[in-house]
Amino acid sequence: MDKELDIIIIGGGIVGTAIARELSRYQLDVALVEKESDVGWGTTKANSAIVHTGYDPKPGTLMAKLNVQGARLFPSVCEELDVPYKRLGSLVLTPDEEGFKVLEDLKEKGKINGVTNLEIIKQEKLFDLEPNLSRDIKGALWVKDTAITSPVELAIAFRENAQENGVRFILDTTVVGFDLEGKRIKSVKTDKGSIRAKWVINAGGVYSDDIARLAGDDSFSITPVKGEYALFDKEIGSLVRRVIFPLPTETTKGILVLPTVDGNLLVGPNEHITTKDDTNVTEEGLKQVISFVKREVPSLPLNMIITVFAGLRAKELNRKDFVIEPSPVVENLINVGGIQSPGLSSAPAIAIYVAEILKDRGVELNKKKHFIPERKAIPRFANLSWEERTKLIAKDPSYGEIICRCEYVTVGEIVEAVRRGANTLDGIKFRTRAGSGRCQGGFCGPRLIPLLSQLLEISPEEITKKGKESRLVIGETKR
Amino acid sequence: MKEIKTDIVVIGGGPAGLAAALRSGEAGANVILVERDFELGGILNQCIHTGFGLSLLGVELTGPEYAETFIEKVLSLSNVKVLLSTMVLDIKEKTVYGVNKKDGVVAIKAGAIVLSMGCRERTRGALGIPGERPAGIYTAGSAQRLINIEGLMPGKRIVVLGSGDIGMIMARRLLLEGAEVLGVLEKLPYPGGLTRNVVQCLEDFGIPLYLNHTITEIRGKYRVEGVIAENLLTKERFSMDVDTILLSVGLIPENELSKKIGVRLDPRTGGPIVDQYRETNVDGVFACGNVLQVHDLVDEVTRESYIAGEGAIRYISGKRRVEGIINLRPGENIRYIVPQRLSLPVDSPPYIYFRPQEPFVNCQIIGKSNGREFTLGSYEYARPGEMIKLRLKRELLDSSLDIEVSLVGEKE
After folding, report:
1. Which among A147, B215, B227, B341 is most buried, taking Cβ atoms within 10 Å?
2. Under an 8 A CB cutoff, do A469 and B222 touch?
């Protein structure tokens, strides 16, 4: 890229894409560089998908401020971008009488942070709300405004909307260093060449400290903390109807059980300090997660697990807060690191906060005349009424051809996903849900490979699960 | 919404649906056979190996040849209408809702419904195998589709987890396509599939079968780079240098639609609870083939589906009556029995299908009712991988009380 950009964002997770979309409101030349083939494939794709209200973070922290702001922005952001958002409420359970003290403290902390709609409830009401909870539970803090969303869909929506408003997305491209001139970054060096930019925003997730270090900035350090999850069949998706938390500890909100926006049941995460490339699910980890939740929801049927996965939290253990600030070392670098939970909830507020930092630093934020705030999601056949389905098929018959039989995804949706930039099996899955049902792509997988090959005009050997070396087939059979 | 009325609707055009549609069509009923794929035949189309039809047709055919035999017959009946590329999404009462490109949404109101949706494969997620989630992990049936229909090779160095029939057949198939098959791992002390497949697919080709073994870790971030296998008896672990894992770890009857209309399932089979006509607890709803119980041979699927087709005819012609019920209970060493109940009156003693809990030799099958015991059959071998079919004795039915079937023998 020859021309100097105004801003380059490193990292296409929920934070990087939210910033990209926020900056796309302004007359700026912005690009985002991401090492994977798609957005949202790091921490964004493997977390609890909760929009926390903000009762939990320590008052006075950046985390507390941005969480509460982010949670307030969330409904309108999801509406503009046509992303699922469901206000279910959550329950923080106490197994004993002493726990009520902790719940009172949480409620008080919530009040200081500006969170309302909190109520402490006793058994009778609790079991009325959640009949499948263990009768050993004594009570709960009911947080009525807790919501769930779909983080990868949101990252995709941020990307699509940002793209429509002029941001460039440079995927499959890894940042390997910087060209510095004194205390300024001149250009970002990647494995595909250099990109010149006036400002660099580091939203590198678990790698954000490494990115900063490449520019000589070691002002913060990220510890990857793994969390393992199990996802259950939709058939038991309403075993609980709210997000169920245990009492929080010093470092974590604990192992949860909750419905997903797609109607599955999600259980996890535990926490385990690890390396930045370790998303291994372990036998012990799964046992820990399941046995913990079984105490709260004894009827959880283990034969209904459809998949297991693990994600990494990017924790800054010294500051125990988000690190969102201009680099103390490099003049034109802004670090957005340590975005652990409630990072998702905070993302819309983080994006605005970063824009303000840029403004404070003298970047002119002039609004675009023709900014398009809305983005429409790909039609989801499974969620339509019979009338809507009839109309859609009449307009485009490919919506009458179902390719994923578990999630009722049609060929029409696949075509649209490819048109919007999906170029891998996982890219298709996160956009349409093809392959995310109970057969886990057993049926649609072998049919999607030739379809993608045709739509993308590449050979089947070039189709991957998730980019790089993740080829699905090695060639043709003997002829 | 396009609305159609018919006597019988059959959901699924694999071997079960074909036989049910054929038998009810031959009896003169108006039948609609709904198939989600663009062609009839179901999973038989990708089973290009031989071994089909020996018991029913007396010839050894490939899967597509076996399917073709029935497709031709079905298509020759003018009262059987086939809806291809049509996916059934919902059933309410006796109305089946499907979609396809041509008609959009189709609502088929029928007098009776035959469920013949088949089964799906258990996945890695259901097993919870630890490790990363790279490309290169396929269920055996998906790999079979890739190779035999799409003409694409999933990998070069293969390990198969689970010794189900498709797993063993695919081990051989991949070897013939030039891949290196390092072995088949089975966590149980005996193979999951037919003895004939152990011999013809593994032993004859020198593919090792590791009994009492499983995979404890999958390596590789983007593509499978290897697995850690464990001997469950000695706890010894070793790594296998593979780029592909095939899973053949069980089949699950696909009853999501059945459940929508209140069909009760047998937790032992994962399929509906049926009587000797293959009628479920919901009046006029029948089930046959792998949606009812996972079969070992397609010939028996066809026979079972003839029964369901006849049952549906009997139902719509108003000849069905139920004067009482006898439950068939699996006793000692028996995993399940199909049918699970008999509707009285019973015209002639029906055949029952069952599998033993584990492998036995020199064993007898005993039926008990009202304190009386009868030997129903004797077998040199009885193995979980092979279904046993035998006829009940008239005397067992005399008392109209529940019947327990058990197996007595030596463990193999």
Report:
1. B227
2. yes
